[in-house]
Amino acid sequence: MLHITGASTGLDRALTEIIFEKGDTAVSRLSTLKLDVSKPREIIDAFAAAKQKFGRIDVVANNAGRRSFGEEAIEDADAHDVMETNFWGAANVLREAVRFFCEVNPMGVGGRLLQISSITGLRGHGALAYYSASKFGM
Fold first, then answer.
1. Is 130 among the residues known to form the active site?
2. pLDDT tens digits, residue range 106-118?
3. Catalytic residue among 39, 51, 68, 117
4. Which position among 130, 131, 132, 134 bears the catalytic label?
């Protein structure tokens, strides 16, 4: 069972589409949930729903994120939202994924975590200062 955050757009949507195009035999059912990764309770509930429906999670692709453009300045609320989603949201998913792999998946199965960041975390971009900082933090 593959759990992908951020699958409605961008890289994770493309990853999801590739999985379906390739006819991955491990994919037999799809379950979608609207979830805010900055809210730990929603993440815990999403993992619980996956356990109830599929029994386990084998892979978590942790890539939910957002950007806010501004060459000179962006609003404080936008800057906070970028950090909450990209840094703290990723940390929240990571924490629950590791707990799930250790405590819920059958003994010896564990799981795989794909932490997906951005090149802007290593090479900042002038119009994406907070986005770059949030991805560097990952």
1. no
2. 777 778 888 888 7
3. 117
4. 131
118 belongs to the catalytic site: no
Q: Which domains, from first to last, does the chain contain? A: 2-137 (3.40.50.720)
- Token readout for 70 is 């501004």
Mean pLDDT to the nearest integer, 86-97: 94
With helix as H, strand as E and coil as C, how does the chain read? CEEECCCCCHHHHHHHHHHHHCCCCCCCCCCCCCCCCCCHHHHHHHHHHHHHHHCCCCEEEECCCCCCCCCCCCCHHHHHHHHHHHHHHHHHHHHHHHHHHHHCCCCCCCCEEEECCCHHHCCCCHHHHHHHHHHHHC
Which residue did the predictor score with more confidence, 94 or 62? 94
